[in-house]
Amino acid sequence: MTARLILKYPDSRLRIRSEEVIDEDWDVNVKKWCTDISDTMKANAGLGLAAPQVGIHKRIFAIDINDLDNLEIFQQEPRDGTLFFINPVLEITEEKTVSSSEACLSVPGVMYNVKRKSSVDIFYTTLEREKKHIRILGKDAVIIQHEYDHLDGKLFIDHLNPFDKKDFLKKNRVPKKKVSEAQVNQIREQRRAKARNMRKRR
Length: 202
Ligand code: CO
Fold this sequence. Notes:
Elements: H1 23-28, H2 30-43, E1 48-50, E2 60-64, E3 82-92, E4 97-104, E5 107-117, E6 119-125, E7 131-137, H3 138-151, H4 162-171, H5 181-201
Antiparallel strand pairs: 1-2, 2-3, 3-6, 4-5, 6-7
The structure holds cobalt (II) ion.
Cobalt (II) ion is lined by residues 104, 106, 146, 150.
């Protein structure tokens, strides 16, 4: 059991695009990464978790089967109640959108409505290295799109309408840096010096 620390907004590591899983990864790391992702997801009662959220910048995400409407469609045997998606590629098959309330372990304490495509195709590799191509609908498609976004450095708050975006930024205002007295004096002195130079030039 290795639950890792989950990176939280506004950590810039959440904005990095994750790399493909390559042959060398399969030889050494993939199983370990997947176990860590699923252990972390369970420890935090998440319904899904993507590798970059635990600082692994590889194209992997996991989903808890308890939150899926249609488990059969995924064509894979769950491991310890978890499905893994390795090197997934998303294709939008339906322009129609659905709106539902989303939350994220990397953006704690907030929940907002997000519009997603109502259906997507996903090409992916299972932990057994089998390649799959499936079409997902409804709530399951929403979960997949949320997790997939993480692999491209996107968060659900990137999809908010202007009103919710404003609300989110207000709640997550980054405190202004405290400037010390010495720094203030230094800045003043620099300004004065600059002004003196300007006068000299004239
Ligand atoms: Co998330």
